[in-house]
From TrEMBL:
The chain crosses the membrane at residues 6-22, 43-63, 83-101. It comes from Amycolatopsis decaplanina DSM 44594. Keywords: Membrane, Transmembrane, Transmembrane helix. Residues 113-135 are annotated as: Disordered. It comes from the Bacteria. Residues 117-135 have a biased composition (Pro residues). This is Uncharacterized protein.
Length: 135
């Protein structure tokens, strides 16, 4: 009974967090990769799949318990520890995803704003300098 309650709480919680990350992450990535919508969709899907694998793996591994459950109070105490731990792990994973999104955004913005150094016009009578290769 306690296992069924644990799964009935943690699996929907995981799905809710993953859908929220997917929906808002997709909007964020589409803004970052304005000219590459397919890339934004792919990155979003990969992050969501990774989130599901890690979080549902944790939920499954955390399913077992050595606690002796004698009454309803023991069930609620065990569930509170387990569900609370899962919620904390999901929160940490959410922060991790936000940091990944921010890193992708920062890298993309830095790349987009990097401009080559303008070459001054040549002096009359001198040949134009050869262009330098990009770093």
């Amino acid at each position: 009974m306690a296992y069924a309650l644990y799964l009935a709480i943690t699996v929907p919680l995981t799905v809710l967090v993953a859908r929220t990350l997917s929906r808002h992450g997709k909007t964020f990535l589409e803004d970052v990769f304005q000219d590459e919508q397919a890339l934004a969709h792919s990155v979003n899907q990969l992050l969501v799949v990774g989130f599901y694998l890690v979080s549902l793996g944790f939920v499954t591994l955390f399913l077992t318990s050595d606690d002796i459950v004698l009454d309803a109070r023991d069930v609620f105490e065990m569930l509170s520890v387990k569900v609370g731990t899962v919620a904390l792990v999901l929160g940490v994973m959410h922060v991790g995803n936000v940091l990944v999104f921010n890193g992708i955004r920062r890298k993309h913005l830095n790349h987009a704003t990097a401009r080559p150094v303008p070459v001054p016009p040549p002096h009359p009578g001198y040949p134009a300098p050869a262009p330098h290769p990009a770093p």
